[in-house]
């Protein structure tokens, strides 16, 4: 398989990924790497059109059969090897990040669309790991994490409040996730804490690290 490492991922993702079992770790790593790359496209582009062009390239490549995609990008190579048949979920990830490129203010539907697009990838990983029956619980946890992650990165107080409100409407509980989804269990636990605090960073001090370690080891 194509070699990619978690070295460039944010600390919270690296920490969550460290608790992934073998059957889902590679799919998780590829997803997190692609998601982080899209986040950089959106946050670092001086002009939205530049980020849109990059996302459009990925959408076009994912629509192709793996054998005719561009070669040489380690993430795309990894997707072509390990995500055959699940490209629709990855296209939803492209759509999710594109939601944030519209002219401000943040559209009313953007937070929910963004969260659902990212959560669909976790649901695909659950199916790939043989845990498709947990898709509903996975979607709930994935949406909550996506919203908490988004809220933690928004500087505008009004927009942050909107995202936090959408997240709080999802509730602060849910069914336990299967072992294959242990990284999401960690992220969701951190997300619940961050949402309760009004949209703070998911990792903030020793208490959040201790929470992540407990969830990673025991799942609760």
From TrEMBL:
InterPro entries reported for this sequence: Squ/phyt_synthse
Domain of life: Bacteria
UniProt xrefs under Pfam families: SQS_PSY
Protein name: Phytoene synthase
């Amino acid at each position: 398989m194509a070699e990619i490492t978690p070295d460039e991922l944010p600390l919270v993702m690296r920490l969550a990924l460290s608790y992934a079992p073998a059957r889902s770790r590679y799919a998780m790593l590829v997803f997190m790497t692609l998601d982080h790359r899209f986040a950089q496209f959106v946050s670092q582009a001086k002009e939205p059109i530049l980020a849109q062009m990059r996302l459009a390239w990925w959408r076009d490549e994912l629509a192709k059969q793996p054998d005719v995609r561009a070669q040489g990008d380690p993430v795309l190579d990894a997707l072509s090897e390990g995500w055959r048949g699940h490209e629709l979920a990855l296209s939803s990830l492209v759509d999710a990040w594109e939601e944030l490129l519209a002219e401000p203010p943040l559209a009313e539907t953007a937070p929910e669309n963004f969260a659902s697009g990212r959560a669909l990838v976790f649901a695909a990983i659950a199916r790939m790991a043989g845990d498709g029956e947990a898709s509903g619980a996975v979607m709930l946890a994935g949406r909550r994490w996506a919203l908490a992650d988004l809220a933690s990165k928004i500087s505008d107080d009004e927009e942050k409040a909107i995202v936090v409100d959408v997240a709080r409407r999802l509730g602060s509980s849910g069914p336990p996730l299967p072992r294959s989804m242990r990284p999401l269990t960690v992220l969701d636990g951190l997300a619940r804490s961050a949402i309760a605090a009004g949209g703070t960073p998911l990792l903030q001090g020793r208490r959040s690290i201790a929470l992540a370690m407990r969830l990673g080891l025991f799942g609760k």
